[in-house]
Design brief:
Length: 223
Amino acid sequence: MATPGKHRTHLVWDWNGTLLDDIDAVVGATNAAFAEIDLAPITMEQYRETYCVPIPRFYERLLGRLPTDAEWERMDGIFHRHYTEQRAPCVLTQGVEELLAQWGLAGHSQSLLSMYGHEHLVPVVRGYGIERHFVRVDGRTGPSGGSKSQHMERHFMALEGIAPERAVVIGDAVDDAVAAAHVGARAVLYTGGSHSRSSLEAAGVPVVDTLAEAVALAELMTS
C-alpha cells in the first residue's frame, strides 16, 4: 500500500457509484428486490431523485411508510443477494486506474471508505487490482443502511498523521458530504452514481461530472 505524504492533500474515496461504476447493478438489484415484495420497479432517474440515507427512509418514500424492522431486514437481504449477482460484470469508472496512480506519484496519499460490508469490500477492491494505491481500505462494520459519519470518524482515527482538514472526500452521495463535514474534511460530489445533480447540489459542496474534475478540484481546495 501507498505511504502517506505529510502536509499534502489526502483523498478519501467512496467505492460504490464512485470508483466502481455499478449504478446499473444497484438499480437492477433494487428492482429485483422490489419484485419480490410486490413493489413496482423504478427507473434510473427515479432512483437518483429518491435515494437517501438512512436507506429505510428511501423505502419510505416509495412505500409511503417506513418499513417494519422485519420488512427492512428482508428487503436488505434480497437487495444484497441480487447485487452480488449483478456486480460481477461492473468495471471501474473511466480513468480510475490512471487517476489513482498519478495521485500517488505526485506524493499525495489516498484511502477508501465504503458502506459496502468490509469483509466483502476488501477482496473485491483487491480483485480490481487497485488496493496498492490506498493507505487504508475500510468497509462498513455493523448493520447496513445507516450514515457514513461514524465510519468516517473511525477511518480518520486509523489514518496515522493525516488531519481531516487536509483531506477531501470524493463520493456520489449527499451522505459523503455529511460524513466529511462531521470530521472537518471537505467534499466533492460526483454525478455518476446514486444521486441526481440537483440532489447533490443541495449538499452545498462542489459537484462534478467526472472523477478527473473531482481530483483537480480537491487539490485546489486544500492548497
